[in-house]
Task: inverse folding
C-alpha cells in the first residue's frame, strides 16, 4: 500500500514508512510545543481510515510533581488544554503525510501508566462510508 505525501509532491511512502514518519513528526511537534518529547512513540493504522499514535513518557517533571502531590485534576486539565492547542498542527502533519484530510481528532492521556493516545480519523476512502452519514433528526 502506498500513500502520497502531498498532492504537489510525487514522492510516495510505503505504509510502514508513513507510520514511522508520522511518529517522527509527532515527536518533533511535542518537543517544539512542550519542550520535551515522549520516550517512545509508535503509530498504527486502525482500519483504513484511522491512525493511532501511542506515546509513552511525555509528562514533564512539573506534571509528575503535581500528580504526586494529589493534583491529578490539575494535570488532567493542563493536558487537555495542551491537546486542544496542538490539535490543529498534529492534524496538519497527518493530513500532509497521508494526503487525506483529518475529519476528527481524538486524544486521551493517563498519568499512571504514563501514556497518551492521539487518534486521527481520516476522510474515508469510500464516499458512501457510514462515517460520513449525518444522524437522523
Result:
Amino acid at each position: 500500500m502506498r500513500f502520497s505525501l502531498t498532492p504537489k509532491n510525487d514522492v510516495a511512502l510505503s505504509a510502514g514508512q508513513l507510520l514511522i514518519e508520522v511518529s517522527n513528526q509527532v515527536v518533533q511537534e511535542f518537543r517544539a510545543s512542550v519542550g520535551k518529547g515522549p520516550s517512545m512513540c509508535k503509530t498504527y493504522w486502525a482500519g483504513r481510515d484511522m491512525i493511532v499514535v501511542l506515546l509513552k513518557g511525555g509528562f514533564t517533571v512539573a506534571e509528575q510533581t503535581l500528580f504526586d502531590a494529589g493534583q491529578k485534576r490539575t494535570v488532567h486539565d493542563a493536558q487537555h488544554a495542551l491537546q486542544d492547542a496542538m490539535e490543529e498542527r498534529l492534524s496538519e502533519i497527518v493530513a500532509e503525510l497521508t494526503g487525506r484530510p483529518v475529519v476528527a481528532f481524538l486524544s486521551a492521556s493517563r498519568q499512571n501508566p504514563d501514556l497518551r493516545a492521539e487518534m486521527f480519523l481520516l476522510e474515508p476512502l469510500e464516499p458512501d462510508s457510514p462515517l460520513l452519514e449525518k444522524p437522523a433528526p
Observations:
- The mean pLDDT is 84.
